[in-house]
Structure formats: C-alpha cells, structure tokens
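Lab notebook, bench 4. Still working through the backlog of constructs that have no structural model yet. Next entry is a single chain of 190 residues. Request: give me the structure tokens for it.
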Amino acid sequence: MRMRGSRESREASQAGAPSESARPVSTLEQDRAEAREPAARERLRGGAHAGAAAEPAPVGRRRAFAGRSRNAGAAAVGTAGAGVLLIARLVMSIASLIALLIAVAIVLRDVDANSANTIVKGVHEGANFFAGAFTGLIRFSGHPKRAISVDWGIALIVYLVAGSIVSGLISRIGRGGVRFERAHRTVPTH
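Model written out:
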C-alpha cells in the first residue's frame, strides 16, 4: 500500500497526471462545480427556449432548501388562515342558530303553544337561557306576551349583530393568512 505523499505520486503530479486528491470525490461535487459555470447551468436547465425568459437555476443545496422552506411556511400560514375562516363561519353559524331558537320561542309564545309539551318547554327554556338577560327590558301595560316578544326580539337582533361583528373580525384575520400564502409562495419551476 502506498501513501499519497510518496515520491512516485509527487513525480506523477509534476508530470501532469491527475492525482487522487485532485479528482472530485462524488458526483454531487461535480454537479456543484458544473452548476457554478454559466454553460453548465444552461445544460442543467435544458437550454433556453426561444422567446421565453430564462429562469435562474438553483445553485447549490442551500438555495433549493430555502425555496422549499418558504413554500412550507407560506402553506402553513395559508392553512392556518383557512382554519381561522372556518372558525369565523362556525361563530356566525352558532349566532344564527341561537337567533333561530329565540325566534321559534317567540312564535311559540305568540301562538299560545302548549307549555306542558316537552318540545315547547325545551325551546322556551333554551331561549330563556340565551335571552333571559333581556327579559323585562321593555314593559307594555296589559300585554305580557308583547313585552316578552319585544325583549326576546331585541336579544335576537343583538345575537345576530354581535355574531356578525365577531365573525367579520375573525374572518379578516383568516383572509390575511390566505393572502399571505398567495403572495409568498414561490412559483414552481417545472
């Protein structure tokens, strides 16, 4: 076994023969060396097409990794934005269902539905749970049904307006995330 520093290897290197240390170790290093040369970059891209703008080829591993992480980050923000939009829709749906429950309770009370019935009783208890704080807000002398209808009608409007405002604020955040994804995602090169 010969050592690299031997007299024969020095003589071979002086004679112009390539030594072992002068050869690239792997094809990855060869690719990197070729990618630094403009002609090699053109070969790697497959040549520029007539009339088409030439795209810069990724040089080295670091640039390609940075592009992937940028796409991943933008995708994560976009996914979070879509999730926030889903939460906004959920908030508005819940507010609408509460308003619907209160509206059904108002109608059942106005038509003198049987309060001993379990469905009617459940609807009234649910509406009282959500609109109970509004009961007694307005008084009509001699018309207790009208007073409850107006009080619960105000509660219905408050739930819809509050749900709409909160849903709008949440969806604004979500739309910002989706816009960020669209603006920061890199264009695919193929």
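Notes after review: The two ends are 49 Å apart (CA to CA). Residues 60-67 have pLDDT under 50 and may be disordered. Flag for follow-up if needed.
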